[in-house]
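Tip: read the tokens left to right.
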């Protein structure tokens, strides 16, 4: 199973891996509730960089634009070819567009 999120958040960027922060904790809980081990899924993002705007001293994500999706499409396709998932789950509208 390949899980594809839209783009990394600030915690992901700082950790250098997808779903590392609060979203990752929710993902982990959801997988556990479904009886799926985190090591049994491949998680990635459609856009490989955080599109953000600073608000009140915090980096908050903004919606990734079409240019970002197109720019990162090759990386996502290479990941898909390497992983060869039986199922791809798009987590959100940005991932679905990708």
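Filled-in amino acids:
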């Amino acid at each position: 199973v390949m899980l594809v999120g839209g783009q990394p958040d600030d915690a992901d960027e700082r950790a250098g891996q997808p779903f590392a922060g609060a979203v990752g904790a929710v993902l982990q809980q959801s997988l556990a509730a479904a009886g799926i081990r985190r090591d049994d899924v491949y998680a990635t993002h459609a856009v490989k960089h955080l599109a953000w705007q600073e608000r009140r001293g915090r980096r908050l994500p903004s919606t990734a634009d079409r240019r970002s999706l197109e720019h990162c499409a090759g990386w996502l396709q290479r990941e898909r070819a390497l992983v060869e998932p039986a199922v791809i789950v798009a987590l959100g509208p940005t991932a679905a567009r990708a």
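The mean pLDDT is 89. The chain is about 40% helix and 20% strand.
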